[in-house]
Amino acid sequence: MSESRTSLFVSGICCTSEETIVRKRLDAVVGHGRYSFNAATAELFIDKNVDAAIVAKELRAAGFGVRRRQEAHVHEPFIRRHQEGIVTLAAGLLAAAGIFLEFDAGSNAISRALLLSAILLGGWKPAIKAVAAARTLTPDMNLLMSIAVVGALLIDKWSEGAAVIVLYSFSLALESYSTYRTRKAIRSLMALSPEQATVRDTAGERIVNARSVRIGERIFIRPGDRVPLDGIVFDGASSVNQAPITGESNPSFKKRGDTVYAGSINGRGALSVEVTKVYEETVLSQIVHLVENAQQQKAPVAHLVDRFARIYTPVVLGIALVVAVFPPLVLGASFYDWFYRALVLLVIACPCALVISTPVTIVSALTNAARHGILVKGGKHLETLGTTRAVAFDKTGTLTSGALQITDIVTLNSLTENRVLEIAASLEQQSEHHIARAVVTAARRRFVDFESLEVGDFEAIPGRGVRGTISGTTYYLGSHEFCHGQNACSADVETLMETFSRRGMSCVILGKSTGPLAVLVVSDTARDVSRSVVTDLRAAGVEHVVMTTGDHDRTAEGVAALVGIEHVHAGMLPGEKVRVVEDLRERYGSVVMVGDGVNDAPALAAATTGIAMGVSGSDAAMETADVILMGDDLSRLPFLIRLSRASMSIIKQNIALALVLKLVFLVLSIAGVATLWMAVLADDGATLLVILNGLRVLYFSGKT
Ligand code: ADP
Ligand code: MG
User: Fold this and answer.
1) What is the pLDDT of residue 1?
2) How confident is the model at residue 332 (pLDDT cuts 50, 70, 90)?
3) Closest residue (by CA) to atom 14 of ligand 1?
4) Which of 427, 493, 508, 559 for mutating ligand 1's site (highest number of atoms within 8 Å of CB)?
5) pLDDT value, residue 2
């Protein structure tokens, strides 16, 4: 993710269909791919080496307003913030006065002056954009509205012309409200991260801007303070509430060596922290950026709507032209009458309500998810998640906690337990696997000095185990399959493993090519929530739940029985996990894979939606996954599926609402029943409904 970028707000986007115009302009001056634009929040991010001033100038020339992000959310003057609203109100008052006068005394110079000033006030900005749109041959809302108003004036319908402008201006204000609202919701994710940090070094203590703190600097966090930057505790201990990151409101205890995240709230202790991420790269910033940029990965429905809107507008325009020309010329009907009908069609040709329906909903959903500690990397995943029919779980670290413990060491040789641990830990030092961590911890606890052993030819075989050479002897440590293949197994070992596995324990074998040396027994306990998550997923409509694990089949079956999963694939290598997922895809269409390990990464990629654990997860898994459960909280999974479903159904409602209204008015206006008034009101009404309906997703709680 590129953090070196400037962000700008583009204001006065009447409708997300104008996105095309913004993008065209930007492609020309900035170059494709060097900016990202989020239509739902009206935010534009450009690479740092692009001159923001040139971009601003170009966009202003096209009739848009441009502001720097800082100006925009810190000290935004009232007039600026409510610009659209004020213009609408003023134009509305003028128009109302004119219409009232006209109604009372008939059309006269004063009423016309009032109506004209309303039109000019509300219409000059759209007019500038209309000219730009006409020149680039991208008919947009502004062009349609401008033609409709000029047309209305031509046939002497002053009050209707003014009404069109006022109501159009109102829909601009609406749109601006909705982008403001979604922006605010995303920003609220960031709100917990303070702008200032207390740096402590040899020069003493000082308060600085959090953006200026560099990696390696030491900051001090007082009780009750918010953590400004990600870092590692090197002194002090405290319980910290990291809800903004993990969605988990129970505090987690932090001591020396633990990681704290920007945005968390410190409890009663004081912490000294060594900074590991600069401001723009903290986990929290990354979450916010991902949500902001989620528009880059549009949901397929959004694409569909965009494409539809692109043909819809020209088609209705064409119909309007035919309506204006054909009946009067060929059928000898009244020109005045049919011209008016064509103007109504112009208003209906505006795809606003349709186009905005999707992005508002999706951004609201992503923001809601982020608040619950679920990071969804793009809008499109919401759509696929909503259709999930099968879920595959990894075992170790996913269904089980990953905080493994070595409970027994059975030596089969004359070796002592400490010698076994010494060899095992020296090998495992280099692995990131949960078992590796358990082995190293066990060795440390017994003060076994494994660090002085020199390990050569180290290799980690994902899903199998590790191998390395110590003083000329090659040792193997890993699963039964792995060691069996290396001749480091025996009948005794197999009996031992059977016994332990039956008790739900996991076993790994330490051996060399002449035979086994020891069996290490690992306890791998299921997370408390796993069982209820599986039940809940079924309740949420998931038909098939499976477990895929690299572990021994008995152990796997033990855990599966405990959490209520019937289908188990044990002894799986990473590639075999992929095959399980692919097979599920074939049978069920949309498949979720949940995992944490390096060995899960290929399967995460193969799944329709890959979901990684954020705390116990490996970097590889988190990179590959489409969704990250920041707090490792599996119980968010059913919620996420429900949220996705709810969002998709709201999007569908929105699209249906917008389309039906358009269709009804299309017919009514050709039939000559609809007036300009009605058309614009219906259009605004639809836009308002669609926005409010979409924003509802922000507050979706999973209870249906
Ligand atoms: P899961 O799929 O349940 O997360 P893995 O596929 O990561 O488990 O591992 C499968 C099996 O391979 C483990 O149960 C263990 O026996 C063995 N294994 C993998 N990596 C290691 C390692 N670093 N040290 C010891 N054993 C390992
Ligand atoms: Mg795992």
Assistant:
1) 35
2) confident
3) 551
4) 508
5) 37
Dist CA 222 CA 498 (whole Å): 52
- 521 CA → ligand 2 middle, Å: 17
Give 466 Cα–ligand 1 centroid separation in angstroms. Answer: 9
Alpha-carbon separation of residue 560 from 394, 406, 462, 534 (angstroms): 11, 21, 22, 10
**Residues 6+ away with beta carbon under 8 Å from 522:** 404, 405, 406, 407, 435, 438, 505, 506, 507, 508
What element of type H or E holds 81? helix 78-81
Give the up-direction half-sphere exposure of residue 518: CA atoms within 13 A in the CB hemisphere.
21
Indicate if the pLDDT at residue 561 is higher than 50. yes
* CA-angle at 301, arms to 22 and 247, nearest 5°: 90
Q: What is the pLDDT of residues 241-289, one digit of tens each?
A: 887 777 776 788 898 988 898 888 888 889 999 999 988 888 888 887 7
pLDDT at 154 over 80: yes
Instruction: Locate the DSSP E strands across 144-213.
Output: 196-201, 204-209
Answer yes or no: is pLDDT of 477 > 90.
Answer: yes
Ligand nearest to the Cα of 484, by number: 1
Residue 154 CB partners (closer than 8 Å, separation 6+):
none
CA of 383 to the centre of ligand 2 (A): 26
Question: What is the pLDDT at residue 21?
Answer: 74
Segment 142-169 shows an average pLDDT of 88
Rounded-to-integer distance, Cα 68 and Cα 72, Å: 6
- Asked about 524 being catalytic, the answer comes back as no
Which of 395, 396, 483 maximizes ligand 1 atoms within 8 Å of its Cβ, making it the mutation to test the pocket?
396
Lowest mean pLDDT among 111-125, 202-216, 344-358, 639-653: 344-358
User: Alpha carbon 608 to chain centroid distance?
Assistant: 16
Q: Are 555 and 572 a contacting pair, CB within 8 Å?
A: no
The token duo for 391 is 């879920």
3-state secondary structure of 143: helix
Looking at per-residue pLDDT, the higher value among 587 and 26 belongs to 587
Residue 597 in contact with ligand 1 by CB distance below 6 A: yes
Tell me the C-alpha distance between 280 and 199, whole Å: 17
Instruction: Please work out whether the CB of residue 550 comes within 6 Å of at least one atom of ligand 1.
Output: yes
Tokens of 496: 């031992």
- Return the residue whose CA atom lies nearest to atom 22 of ligand 1: 465
Centre of ligand 2 from the C-alpha of residue 555, in Å: 14
Alpha-carbon gap, residue 21 to 29, rounded angstroms:
13
> Tokens 């910033």, residue?
285
3-state helix, strand, coil in the chain (%, to 5): 55, 20, 25
pLDDT in tens, 224-233: 888 999 999 9
pLDDT band at 309 (very low <50, low <70, confident <90, very high): confident
CA distance 519 to 219: 45
User: What's the whole-model pTM score?
Assistant: 0.81
